[in-house]
Amino acid sequence: MAIADFLWVFIWCINHLMLHIEAKTVHGIFSTAVSKRDKGQYITTFCFHGDTPEIRYKLNTSGQGFPKLLFYLDETWQEAKDQTDCTRKTENAKFGHEITHKTGNQTISHFVRPKIWHIVYTDSYTCSESRPLTPLEQPNIIEYELKLLNPDSIGNPTNHFSDEEIGLLGFYQLLTLLYFILACIYTPKLLQTLSKQRSMYLVTRLLTGAMGLQAMGALMMTFHLHNYSKDGIGMPGLQLLAEFLDVLSQFTMLYMLLSLSLGWTLGVVTSKTSHLDALKKRPAVQVVGVLGLLQGLLFLWEQYEDRDHTMYHAHRSIAGVVLVLLRILLAALFAGNLYSTVSTERSTLKRQFYSSFAKSCMLWFLCYPVLVIASWVFATYLRYKFITMGVVFCQSVAVIMLYRLFLARSLYWEVSALSSSLPLRMDKNFGIKLYS
After folding, report:
1. Beta bridge partners of 142
2. What is the mean pLDDT of residues 359-384?
3. What's the rounded Cα separation, in Å, for the pair 91 and 89?
4. Rg of the chain, C-alpha, whole Å
5. Residue 389, by phi and psi: left (phi above 0), alpha (psi -120 to 50) or beta?
6. DSSP code of 133?
């Protein structure tokens, strides 16, 4: 019953969030009422580059009251969006485009470097308290479709990707290919090892589950971005599901790493699950369960606040900043538990194992907050790509290092109280005995 309730809540959240998703083929309604309320109706943002970037629009009517699209540079918009004087806010726009026909286009000014632009709708009623004068003047309610396009390799405006996103499709395609190759090579041996349910069965199952969730998320992002490259919309449902799978993968890894830091499978056990059952009663495990739930709730909050729905954008909202702080807190909790466990160990082999284990785990825990902080040395349009690619790469490397530690003839095999038989042995080059 609990699982059914959870799935129902998740489906409701997906449907609710889908109502707010915007893509770079943007559909919606220009509204005089919204424009008056917000001192300009915010439409979307996009990072343009080159000589011929372009916006194309289609409307169901050209409206009245001189409807106009205003274009703000990002540095100007950060000041203008909090402006309380409507007239001053509209005057801060870099330029405007008056809408006189149902279809049209606007070429964006060329700059040496890519620039992030914010697009806002206004009309002659926006800054006027007394207008429109009904019934002589009717407020605008205009259905629109905007296509935001960057130039392709030969200069034609056909590329739906913003400069913040260019290169991500190739990255996820390569990542999916690597996951596929690794799956083809190691899945048969891994399934054989898991079917025996012997050494490190539970650890291997959790690690494999986390990596499988990451691989499924990468595949879904590839499908979404591939379709996005064609129509500027993509498959937002798959993108949101990929982010949800990422959260599940994070929680799985978190649970496994914390359990290992508390000594799971490294003590004398009487059964495969007795030590795990004992761990569930530890206060630290209960704390990490609460923090994992909090991470999921922050994910939903962040998606609700940020309509761009990107997987790693902690620098854009309060929820994202809290996620970074939460990851640092979890790293501190992990380090404290690991120190407590190591301090009671007398075995040199176990201490060496924990040293190797700690390196992989701290890479997995801290790559996200460190990359978010480091991204501030880059231009704004490069930060999202830097964080996304960096986090996925670092976490994949951490998982591979853990696989080497757990499944090869390594320290873990030597010190594990459960290693009564030899676990999966990878090829000679992959399974080299490394203690640090």
Report:
1. 30
2. 85
3. 5
4. 26
5. alpha
6. -
Partnered with residue 121 across adjacent β-strands are 41, 69
pTM: 0.71
Let me know how many helices (H) and strands (E) the chain has, helices first: 13, 9
The answer for residues whose C-beta is within 8 angstroms of residue 222's C-beta and 6 or more apart is 169, 172, 173, 175, 176
Tokens matching residue 307 = 């309509």
Return the half-sphere exposure (C-beta side, CA atoms, 13 A cut-off) of residue 253.
27
Token pair in block for residue 369: 């907050």
Taking CA atoms, 273 is separated from 198, 201, 202, 379, 387, in Å, by 12, 11, 9, 50, 38
Nearest residue to 110 via CA among 54, 161, 163: 54
Instruction: List the one residue out of 114, 125, 119, 117 whose CA is nearest residue 35.
Output: 125
| Contact assessment for residue 386 and residue 392, using Cβ atoms and an 8 Å cutoff | no
Instruction: Kindly report, residue by residue over 120-149, the tens digit of the pLDDT.
Output: 999 988 888 777 666 667 788 899 999 888
Residue 435 tokens, joined: 């203690």
What type of residue is 256?
Answer: M
Contact yes or no for 272/197 (Cβ under 8 A): yes
Q: 367 with 391: CB under 8 angstroms?
A: yes
Burial degree of 343 (CB within 10 A; 0-12, 13-18, 19+): exposed
| Amino acid at residue number 263 | G
